[in-house]
Design a protein that fits this description.
It is built from one helix and six strands. With 70 residues, it is mainly β. The protein has one domain. The radius of gyration is 11 Å and the shape is globular. The relative contact order is 0.30. The model has no long low-confidence stretch (mean pLDDT 94).
Length: 70
Amino acid sequence: MATNRRLESEADFQEAMEQERTVRVFRDDDMINAGGLIIRFDSSMIAIQSSVSDLDYYDREACEFYELRR
């Protein structure tokens, strides 16, 4: 069964990026991205790649990030 874990700290984002965990992004209680991988992050943004040509940048303050573990 799959479980969701909220990503909040630098260590959470680093672990999800290194282990190539699938990430879901929510803003205003709406899912705006599902199935991407974190490829870069800093204190203000998260870069998520969903496919070869699909790269999105999300504001860390405006969005919630969840790691999907199977």
